[in-house]
Amino acid sequence: MNSYHHLDSSTLIGYSAGSLPEAFRAVVSAHLSICAHCRTQLLDADRVGGQLMSQQEGVPLPAAARDSLLKRLAQSPVSSPAHREAPPRVHDPDRLPEPLWPYFGRSYSGLRWRTIGPGVHHIRSQVRDGNLMLLRIAPGRSVPMHSHGGNELTMILQGAYDDSLGHFAPGDVADLDCDIEHQPATSPGVPCVCVAATDLPLRFSGWLARALQPLFKM
Ligand SMILES: [Zn+2]
């Protein structure tokens, strides 16, 4: 399953069940913090998950899923109208989405980018499972054509890019599995900054790109 611009239903169900790797949870949370559409979809996933659990009486939940569920129940009832409302927005262009603060800090100006290629910078975060990184790609550049050994979830934070799947602007996510091969090209004007979660290394298609892959460390 793939979803362009919003979260895939299987991703939302995994998030609802507490079974996503930490890297993916961070990106899902960041998108949910700005997307009312996906917050509504999450309510449906919660209901489906609740029904499934009610039909499996006597089967214990994995500890991580149980802890996640209890935490969510303690935070707010899923049926609360407040859950569907957008959280208070602070119009500060230097402010990262709040769910990313534990991983990258609060402000874009505080980020310490590492150069990994001409016009390409990144910051990796330590997560328990999966890979979580910020990427900043200069305007008007192409990322090498690549497919994925696993899943990739990317959210655009600043700037934009285009690929065969469409135009991706701030707030959009690309929720891709290993069947997708794509070559994002950043829009002119401002650098494209995105946060990306992967669960396995990317597979670059061309021999040159493969040779560069150790440099990218992705
Ligand atoms: Zn969405």
Give a brief outline of the structure:
With 218 residues, this protein is of the alpha+beta class. The chain has helices spanning 9-17, 22-32, 36-54, 63-75, 81-84, 101-104, 207-216, and strands at 3-5, 114-117, 120-125, 131-137, 146-148, 152-158, 161-163, 166-168, 173-176, 185-186, 192-198, 202-204. The chain has one domain (1-54, 100-217): Sandwich (Jelly Rolls), CATH 2.60.120.10.
Structure, explained:
Residues 111-196 form the ChrR-like cupin domain. This protein has 218 residues and is α+β, with helices and mostly antiparallel strands. The protein has a single domain (1-54, 100-217), classed as Sandwich (Jelly Rolls). 32% of the residues lie in helices and 24% in strands. The chain has helices at 9-17, 22-32, 36-54, 63-75, 81-84, 101-104, 207-216, and strands at 3-5, 114-117, 120-125, 131-137, 146-148, 152-158, 161-163, 166-168, 173-176, 185-186, 192-198, 202-204. Helix 1 crosses helix 3. The structure holds zinc ion. Residues 6-7, 31, 35, 37-38 line the site of zinc ion (ZN).
